[in-house]
Amino acid sequence: MDRVIDQAVKVRLIATAPGPHAVPAVLHYHLADPLAVRMSFPPEISLDGVAVDWAFARELLAEGLSSPAGRGDVRVRPCGPDRTVMEFHAYEGIAMVQLDTADVRQFLTRSYAVVPAGREPAHLGVERGLAELFGAA
Questions:
Q1: How far apart are the C-alpha atoms of 31 and 19, rounded to whole Å?
Q2: Longest Cα separation, the chain
Q3: pLDDT averaged over the chain?
Q4: How many angstroms separate the Cα of 96 from the Cα of each of 35, 73, 81?
Q5: Which of 38, 81, 87, 124 has the fewest beta carbons closer than 10 A?
Q6: Residue 93: HSE in the Cβ half-sphere, 13 Å Cα cutoff
Q7: How far is CA 44 from CA 16, 47, 48, 72, 106, in A?
């Protein structure tokens, strides 16, 4: 079983300039951090020329497929039956990207095969860490 899931996705950067711009991005899921998903963007689309990674709850991504989700730095919402919009809020401004919902569903399905929804606490390693701390391991 894969412990790390990476899935390349094409996102359309929604900008103030006319027309969306297609850019590559990668969704990441890792067993060592079962509650989180990461999305990586290449340096060529950032303002300072550095690759950008955002971390957010896997549950947020799932919820955002059917209704608006999130109040913080990352927000997800459906945009019609085939698209999902993600907003990334930072001090410098807001970036909005649009993804194919099918790609997001495929990624989530793959991540649920590694850690089913609701079973994340069993993979956090808290019990093992406590056992090691107290010498019971």
A1: 37
A2: 62
A3: 84
A4: 23, 12, 18
A5: 81
A6: 7
A7: 17, 8, 9, 25, 26
